[in-house]
Give the backbone structure.
Amino acid sequence: MREVHRKVACSQACVCAALIDSSRDIHLEKEACAVRIAWGRLSAAVTSVLVGSVLTAVPASAADPVTIQLFDINDFHGRIDANTVKFAGTLEQLRAQAGEGKSLFLSAGDNIGASLFASATQKDEPTIDVLNALDLDVSAVGNHELDKGAADLTGRVSDRADFPYVAANVIDKTTGKPLLPAFETFTVNGLKVAVVGALTEETPSLVSPAGISGLEFTDPVEAVNKTVAELNAATDKPDVIVADYHEGAGAGTPDGATIQQEIAAGGTFADIATKTDASVDAIFTGHTHKQYAWDGPIPGSTKTRPILQTGSYGENIGNIGLTVDPDTDEVTAYTVKNVPRTTTADATLVSTYPRVAAVKPIVDAALENAKKVGETPVGEVTDDITTAYSGTNRDDRSNESTLGNLVSDAVLAQVKNTTAGADLAVTNPGGLRNELFFTKDPAVASDKDGSVNYAEANAVLPFVNNLSSVTLTGASLKKVFEQQWQTNPDGTVPSRPFLALGSSSNVRWTYDDTKAAGSRITSLWVNDEPVSPTASYKVAVPSFLVSGGDNFRAFTEGKGVDTGLVDYEAWIDYLQKNQPLSPSYARHAVKATGVKSEYRVGSDLSVGLAKLDLTSLGSPANKSVSAKITKDGATLKNLGSSTVTDGAATISGALPAGVTGDLVLEATAYPSGTRTTIPLTVKGARITATADDAVFGEDTTVHVTATAPGAAPTGAVKVLDGSTELGTGTLVDGKADVTIDTEKIGAGTSELTV
């Protein structure tokens, strides 16, 4: 009896040696598996061999499709808090459903940086430890991984991380090679999977230039495609290729966007969606903090492929499932979705999943450390600096506050020193979540009056917004302030119909809320200059406002630049460098009524001022307001002082005689120091004229009357036909007769100018 050895394809897509022996069953063996096949399946083939003495090849049956699950996060930003265990539990629930060895966990970058207090105070080591405990397989580099410089990423961060970072488009100018690996490969459910990384080309404008000197950030799509071409040319090419971009769409599904709209908008995301190499099977994105799970086009094909972003902060786990034909490496089916963070109790997650059990003590230790660090003094105040109060209740968002204006000053000072720059800053009132009280906290033994500790300062701005500089036209900037009168995108009015923006000290405006929507801001000043509708202004704001948060949609009309600064870090740095801080009780916004669109020279004006007082704790009630008329900064006339009652006063008086043009009414309330500047347009005397009918060739007379408030106007008048002077006269008691020669104007009807 002869023995015949043959290669037979097994259903697990492996190739095994088969020993054919007519006296016993066939045993198929491969690494880590054993498969028994009954003799009857090959009996005919064996008979053929034995009878004909010819070895005949038997076609291998098609391998079964293989499914793998890809789990992803992006822009986690050091979210070490009460939700971290549930974030970990969500991932583990999905892993359990997929089956051991059948999934890959990856990140699209910004795991660290712009982090919560508990992570940031330990240089994001707790976040890296959590991702290690969760066996993160690979991460793209995000711009925030470079916040502390490339050396920090390749040294401290990479040394602590058990996972590799990949970035195909970060090039060392000296060597011409990528700073980090362009890709990593993994075996998932028997398939070789390559993950190629790239990050936003805008990184040089998002981080400190000193930290990335010597590096070049190239087009991310071109870099990914170059790497994919090299992978496909290799003898051991991967079965599946995944592109992992730290760059993404400008809007997502919750914003009402579609992939077609985002592609039509052009830009980097359009290139990612339409130009990423066709052999890439799945695309993960990040950076823009948007949420979507879309069917993206494949170049040169009518088929689609999954493209996904989770939003941010671990609120979702991205999940792409790929079903692959192992014989052809073709994706025959896929699923794409975002899975919201689980609501399962922490205790259940910890007892069920070993990785979650490893995460919890890391989180607990970080939070305990943050509590201790929170008692460290970071600044001093001379008095309470608070949100607006309504009676005894804090957080009256319909009024500006000493705290909102101070935070805006801090934001302006910090962003102004970045490469992005800033001209002014505004703060949304809903972002202010705590007060700076002068009196010490009795619960903290080390606290004292006037001292501000880390925890107190951090509690003012707890949302961890990045700070951006948004360039707006003056017209769009005015819209921002108009949108304090709130409307939802559908035109309805929300539960808070007015949100009072905090602003930096170089900003003032007046308003009249009796006017129609869109016309309520009656003047807007930056650095003592009226805002020009066509000029450009750089506005420093938290990232919440950049995307149109709180219905301040006009911010989306501008171009925003992420400065790389985090709000609470910049805020605390400002407190440390500018202590002690005192509250400013000067309002930046004042209601002004009775202002006319234009005035006649010397006429009377009467302007009502209201909302002169702030309502933050300690704010004084104003007692008087002084006013004056100025032109080009020079005082033309003092209008004296008026009494303020319940935050309101009336300014009355006559405009300067004989002065026309653009004047300014300036008023200052005492003792708060609230300043108001109202532009006034003043025109000359009103002139009317009539002419006698005349026979051509004879003289005729033009009768001129000039009127103005107060004394009758005096001076000379001219009668013109176009640019030709026909005659002059002198006003007496506001009247003058001017004789003209009709031969100078010809026969017929003529329009003359006086």
User: Anything to note?
Assistant: The mean pLDDT is 89. The radius of gyration is 37 Å. The chain has five domains: 4-52, 66-74+85-110+128-360, 382-577, 589-683, 686-744.
